[in-house]
Amino acid sequence: MSDWPLTRTFRSSSGAVRWDSLGDPGRDPVVLLHGTPFSSYVWRAVARSLARRHQVYVWDMPGYGTSEKFAGQDVSLAAQAKVFTELLAHWGVDQPLVVAHDFGGAVSLRAHLLHGARYTALALVDPVALAPWGSPFFRLVGTHADVFEQLPPALHGALVREYIGSASSAGLHPAVLDRLVEPWLGAPGQAAFYRQIAQADQRYTDEIQDRYGEIGVPTLVCWGQDDTWIPAAKGHELVARIPGAHLEPIAGAGHLVQEDAPAELTAALITFLDTP
């Protein structure tokens, strides 16, 4: 993992979290949240660019990437929102700029609306936020996670590789795809992959989606126009629910916008985050 080392550890209520910080301490803090089945690695290019102006915090959620994975672990949206709130307190970061992708979008929204986490601004990138969500494949695996967990390692690896690859419109570089698949291989990784899908319950967004009108911070919603995981129409629906929210379509990008259009996404984020 030398290409993206997370050098610090926080003992959260859902297991050890690996995290790190880029940029000079004391600058305006930005926190990046990844989605599923990814890790903070997808933010590497954006994080390094934002670190020229900000102190950037990156972390792998419990059960993901290089963070701890174990049997019986609670990796639900509810648990991740609690962990995020714990991390903000651990870092001593009050009212950061928050940028969240996919599942991380729901985590940031729950932390804000249910746990009192305060933000200066919020940018959501193809977020899991509105019902219905979850592809037919995702729902199938969630219903039969115990069966899929018993797949031979080679078949499991091929399934994960195909699934993660489908998040990109242009197609992922083989080395990047290898890096994103790697945490889900081996016995602990295979079990963790199906565990996080089994716990991905829509009720965690159902609980908050009628409260999006309470969001009072500047909000940007970026959406890959070629997203086949969550339709771009959801972006229009979401901004209509959040007062003053702005939609930034990203042409030529699928669900994994950070990989498909990193320059375009970074430019949109810099403009938004640096606006007084």
Automatic annotation (TrEMBL):
User: Which residues lie in coiled coils?
Assistant: none
Classification via InterPro entries: AB_hydrolase_1, AB_hydrolase_fold, Carboxylesterase_BioH, Epox_hydrolase-like
Q: Which molecular-function annotation in GO is an example for this chain? A: hydrolase activity
Query: At the top level of its lineage, which domain of life is listed?
Result: Bacteria
- UniProt keyword list: Hydrolase
Every copy of the AB hydrolase-1 domain together lies at 29-262
Name of the protein this chain belongs to:
Alpha/beta hydrolase
